[in-house]
Write a structure and sequence with these properties.
By secondary structure, this protein is mainly β. The protein is built from no helices and 11 strands. It starts with a strand and ends with a strand.
Length: 126
């Protein structure tokens, strides 16, 4: 069983910063990519950022490019999302996800991912 547990969410004023963490535990997971998604009330879950596990290439949604940074720890047990210059429209539940079978395309698609965390709430006040 693989578990992904997010933390680091909270309430922040517009212009502020938060750092989300996602810890992977359980059986050894051979992963090809990890990603962060978010879901606001009444909206579809959308891609935020992704990371190719081997090599560390990163990918971002246009809405967060230049403000958010995805990274991983050297031990390979966690992935992070540094969020700067937060806006009210960034308010959502943020989920991390892991893919064991990404082949190089479709990192922004939910169907690419095999494992998901329960999410952490991020609220940005104006």
């Amino acid at each position: 069983q693989v578990q992904l547990v997010e933390s680091g969410g909270g309430l922040v004023q517009a212009g502020g910063s938060l750092r989300l963490s996602c810890v992977v535990s359980g059986r050894t997971l051979v992963r090809s990519a990890m990603g962060w998604f978010r879901q606001a009330p009444g909206k579809e879950r959308e891609f935020v950022a992704g990371l190719r596990w081997t090599g560390g290439t990163t990918y971002y949604a246009d809405a967060v490019k230049g403000r958010f940074t995805i990274s991983r720890d050297n031990a390979g047990n966690a992935v992070f999302l540094q969020m700067n210059s937060l806006k009210p429209e960034d308010t959502a539940v943020y989920h991390c996800a892991a893919s064991a079978r990404w082949t190089g395309v479709g990192l922004e698609r939910k169907e690419t991912y095999d494992y998901w965390g329960q999410g952490t709430q991020v609220t940005v006040s104006s």
